[in-house]
Amino acid sequence: MNVARLRPLAYWLLLLVGVAAPVLFPDYTTQIAVLWLMVLFALTWDILGGQMGYNSLGNIFFFGIGMYACAVVQIGLYYDVGMYTSAGRTTHIVFSHSQYFTGLTFGILAGGVVSAVLALGVGFFVFGLRGPYFAIGTLGIAVAAAELISSWEWVGAASGISLPVFPGGPDTQKLFFYFLLFALSFVLLLFLRWLYSTNFGLAINAIRDDEEKAEGMGLHTRRYKRVALVISAFFLGLSGAIFGNMTGFVEPREIAFPTTTFNIFMVLMVLLGGKGTLWGPVIGAVVFHFIKEVTWTYFLGWQYIALGLLIVIIVVYFQQGIVGWLMEKYPERFGIQVAPKEAEAPPRAAGLAAQPGGAE
After folding, report:
1. Digit-coded pLDDT (tens) for 203-226
2. E strand or H helix at 78, and its extent?
3. Do 64 and 257 touch, CB atoms closer than 8 A?
């Protein structure tokens, strides 16, 4: 069966699973919501790392910036941010229903826009680097951002910010943020499906295959790289804004800029599923999240050992990922035409045929 024919069905199936999951498994609504966040992480990282060949280690920077931008807008629309985050504040601040949802709406939009604008600025510097220098440079930006915000008293410094309380019951809150994360990840998947089918997708693939040749053919590679970074940053900023409100608390090192957890998970999920494919990051995120939840639940204390072993196995033995392995094993099912091998004569017969009168 050709896999290409099943792709439209896969989107409808994913939509059905996303809508039905919190109804069928209400006790795991939060965990499944984090799964959609993982899917979004993997898809955004693959824009640069898989489709364009620029392996970033600092995408978490835009996630954290979106989280803080949202928090500042939510609070700043109605109160002084410095007063709200002050350790000496004694006034109890309550947000009304309209204030909460208005602030949340503008805050989420601000998270995406601010992250996208910063991505433009970051792109001017980091895209002068390539290979491991690019990866280390982006990681340095994320680490520096966490340290700077940790010392910025106006946004709570290392103590963090408690976000406005959701005006509803716990179950309603879980469902609300669940569907926000699911909708965002599903929209991103549909958007990338369209984007990769355009000339933009061909251009970033050309950069991945051979950037010098792409430039020699007149492709404005720097422009395409910046746009790819902006797209990735925009969706990461939106997800950071939503996740920050879902947790109800923003802290720089462990929640906004977790370089040793979420930041590494992005890369690992894409490698597990298959770089440079649309569904590879989705599959990798689902498999990885399941493994993570099992190890964190039943093997607490050994979870990072399991994570390390998974990294070693993928890097050493499974570099093409799940989708890449399936495409190699069953290319015809993915619509890949494989040229038939030419029949070769046995070496001895070929040698005899080459000599006049050698074969009788």
Report:
1. 999 999 999 999 988 889 999 999
2. none
3. yes
